[in-house]
Amino acid sequence: MNRQLAHLSDEALVAxxxxxxxxxxxxxxxxxxxxxxxxxxxxxxxxALAEDAVQEAFLSVWRTASRFVPERGxxxxxxxxLVHRRAVDTVRREQRRRADSLDRAAEPAVEGVEEDxxxxxxxxxxxxxxxxxxxxxxxxxxxAYYGGFSQSELAERLGQPLGTIxxxxxxxxxxxxxxxxxxxxxxxxxxxx
Amino acid sequence: MDLHDLTAxxxxxxxxxxxxxxxxxxxxxxxxxxxxxxxxxxxxxxxxFGTVAPAPPAHLRVAILDAAAAERSNVVPLLRRRWVARGLxxxxxxxxxxxxxxxxxxxxxxxxxxxxxxxxxxxxxxxxITGLSSAPSGKTYEAWVIPKGTAPRxxxxxxxxxxxxxxxxxxxxxxxxxxxxxxRAGGVPAPTTTPIFAAST
Lengths: 193, 201
Known about the structure:
The complex is a heterodimer of chains A (193) and B (201).
Chain A: H1 10-18, H2 22-44, H3 47-64, H4 75-93, H5 95-98, H6 117-132, H7 135-145, H8 151-158, H9 162-181
Helix pairs in contact in A: 1-2, 2-3, 2-4, 3-4, 7-9, 8-9
Chain B: H1 7-11, H2 17-27, H3 31-46, H4 58-72, H5 75-82, E1 98-106, E2 112-119, E3 125-130, E4 139-146, E5 153-158, E6 164-168, E7 177-184, E8 197-200
Antiparallel strand pairs in B: 1-2, 2-3, 3-6, 4-5, 4-7, 7-8
């Protein structure tokens, strides 16, 4: 694996990808491909669909890298947003999967998955923050983000007014932001430059 | 519907398409929402790290890099293949203009398609195309200017058919590629199909 670009920030890699530097795309994939695939697999629960979602998202990175504006957010957030959006679009199109019960947002089993230490640390921090939320807020975030349910689908399935669902999402996400912002819970990719 | 309330749901991709569109329109006019969304987007993105991530199959990395290479090299190999200058008489360009690109390709019906890119003194450009059939219903031809090393910029939409002259918006920098693709009616912000032709200036 070519890691000559390992010292560059994500944002610098995106700028190189915009200049058709293929090794920069490879390096971005090596940093976030696994997280991207895990996310797509959680939402889609199908390996082939998850692979498609990840591939399409990284090709979007390649095609639109020149339009990425670092001032508006981190490159990793941008990449994972593309993956998530692609996965959610697919799961909503696949009506068959939508017939599943709400527990489809549940975490898959951990056994047999070899993780590197960094990824395990990030996962534990995010899960710890989620556990700090009141149940109703955590449920709304997990079903929306990991389950791919829209707010109106959630209102219907949970038998709650739409305003309640919106409020749970907003309060839950704002609280997550505080929790993750506390010292020791930094989860961003730290550049070594 | 109070659009300010939709920021968290938008960050979580939990809006239906029409709601998402309405929110995006609102976003262009609301500084407060833009700031709030930037924060909540980062937090929503962190949820991606909150799930177990098995290693993706090795062929996925190969497939992505191969597809990326094939896409970005679209322009140049096509150009080499189709850049057939062989003795074709080029119509005399106006004195202030220089013909910088000439591409010829054979369409399926064996009609000769001739595309010339005429560059004006101030680096504006016009495409002259003959032998290009009309775009099918619901489709349009879209011209692109691709400055070296950057993404394609939409430069014109045109229906094709017969002989067409198309003025390209903006300027064409040195070493840029001019390309034409077939896209859905109304045009798209980035090309989605393989160019019908591409020529380097």
